[in-house]
Amino acid sequence: MSTYNTIVLSLKKDTERRKSVGAILYHLGLGFKYFDAITPEKLSYFDKEIYFKDLDYNPKVNREAVMATFLSHMNILKTIFNSKTNTLLLEDDLIPVRDYDFEKVDFDSFGVKQLMSEVSCCCQFYNWKEAGEIFWHLSSIHPTQAFDWELHKLRDKFNIVTVDEPVFKQSTKFISNIAPNGY
């Protein structure tokens, strides 16, 4: 049996999302804690003008929401590493698409295990040591893309694996905070 924390990244104000994901995780038998996401209003001058100076421009995407989400994930990586506890990270707009044995997770076999088959940062297991290494790496670059794409670029540098068949998918019940018009 694996021992790990489960964290749900969510904006504090998104109460309907929190209710929805809470019911899903209760049904799956997963205890969890919310991790309050950073909002665009909390971005500093350094964040917007220095760290994200090379971030791609896409007119369909709320650029500052991409930055805030990226920094939220960075804070989670740091929290995971500092806690020295392996972690399941989920975002608040997920729904399960198949059964998965959440009790038998071999954290020694990966650094990150993505639970969707496409590029995503909305559901993955993190080995706490690898979370620290990824945090350090991403702290030393100027990101050009959203967190999920930057994480995807690291799959050859770090032990990032993906399940053969998705465990979760993103719900269509909620409008994206990053790309409200899709992209």
In a nutshell, what does this entry contain?
The chain has 183 residues and is of the alpha/beta class. The chain has helices at 15-28, 45-51, 63-83, 128-139, 147-153, and strands at 5-10, 33-36, 87-91, 94-96, 112-114, 123-126, 160-162, 168-170.
What would your notes on this structure say?
This protein is an alpha/beta fold. It has a single domain (5-170), classed as Spore Coat Polysaccharide Biosynthesis Protein SpsA, Chain A, CATH 3.90.550. Helices cover 33% and strands 17% of the residues. The protein is built from five helices and eight strands. It has helices spanning 15-28, 45-51, 63-83, 128-139, 147-153, and strands spanning 5-10, 33-36, 87-91, 94-96, 112-114, 123-126, 160-162, 168-170. The protein has a six-stranded mixed β-sheet with strand order 2-1-3-6-5-7, with helices on both faces. The protein has a two-stranded antiparallel sheet with strand order 4-8. α3 (63-83) crosses α4. The chain is globular, with a radius of gyration of 16 Å. The model has no long low-confidence stretch (mean pLDDT 92).
